[in-house]
């Protein structure tokens, strides 16, 4: 069975589509430069709609402790997804937040994959995402990496696949990599930061048929 995280949700309609379609995780972005960023007040209303069976994931880029506090208070988040943090910082935030930690590893080459082992004691899950160009947002750019890089790779932790996924390619991605958890954001949007209920439904249906 393959599970799905729909990330970057910001409206009740799209959140409800993710819930109705069978998403296992829903993600909320706490990074103001992102077009998917949500306010604490908005998250408070959104997370109240999420059934207990679905995990709520807060997405952060090198956050301070105060931001983590505010996010948890607004959404009772089950996990925190960290981009651009060192293993040491990830471990510190895991202890501080008392939440499950996902460490994002930006991938372009096999050497990038090897950095995942540094998070073995610092995180609970690795999120393999495509490395974006210098100066770009660390995720949510619709970029994919070469899935063949994962061939024979010994994963140090449970992991999820992200980066450029859509309803059209997720079946291929799962067959190619063996992923049991996939994470989509841009692939279910009609414009940057604008989730599309039909695309969410199509993605979840595509995974459900695997």
TrEMBL record:
It catalyses: N-(5-phospho-beta-D-ribosyl)anthranilate = 1-(2-carboxyphenylamino)-1-deoxy-D-ribulose 5-phosphate. The keyword Amino-acid biosynthesis applies. This is N-(5'-phosphoribosyl)anthranilate isomerase. GO terms for molecular function: phosphoribosylanthranilate isomerase activity. Residues 4-206 form the N-(5'phosphoribosyl) anthranilate isomerase (PRAI) domain. It comes from Sphingomonas panacisoli. Keywords: Amino-acid biosynthesis, Aromatic amino acid biosynthesis, Isomerase, Tryptophan biosynthesis. It is an enzyme of class 5 (isomerase). One of its GO terms (biological process) is L-tryptophan biosynthetic process. It holds the Pfam family PRAI. Pathway: Amino-acid biosynthesis; L-tryptophan biosynthesis; L-tryptophan from chorismate: step 3/5. Its EC number is 5.3.1.24. Belongs to the TrpF family.
């Amino acid at each position: 069975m393959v599970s799905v995280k729909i990330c970057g949700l910001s409206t009740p309609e799209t959140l409800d589509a993710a819930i109705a379609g069978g998403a296992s995780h829903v993600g909320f972005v706490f990074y103001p430069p992102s077009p998917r960023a949500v306010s604490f007040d908005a998250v408070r209303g959104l997370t109240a709609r999420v059934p207990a069976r679905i995990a709520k994931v807060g997405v952060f880029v090198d956050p301070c402790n105060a931001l983590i506090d505010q996010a948890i208070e607004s959404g009772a988040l089950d996990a925190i997804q960290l981009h651009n943090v060192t293993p040491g910082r990830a471990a510190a935030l895991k202890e501080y937040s008392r939440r499950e930690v996902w460490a994002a590893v930006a991938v372009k080459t096999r050497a990038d994959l090897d950095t995942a082992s540094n998070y073995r004691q610092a995180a609970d899950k690795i999120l393999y995402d495509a490395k974006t160009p210098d100066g770009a947002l660390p995720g949510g750019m619709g970029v994919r990496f070469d899935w063949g890089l994962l061939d024979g790779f010994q994963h140090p932790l449970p992991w999820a696949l992200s980066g450029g996924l859509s309803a059209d390619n997720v079946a291929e991605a799962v067959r190619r990599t063996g992923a049991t958890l996939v994470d989509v954001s841009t692939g279910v949007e009609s414009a940057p930061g604008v989730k599309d209920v039909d695309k969410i439904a199509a993605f979840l249906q595509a995974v459900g048929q695997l």
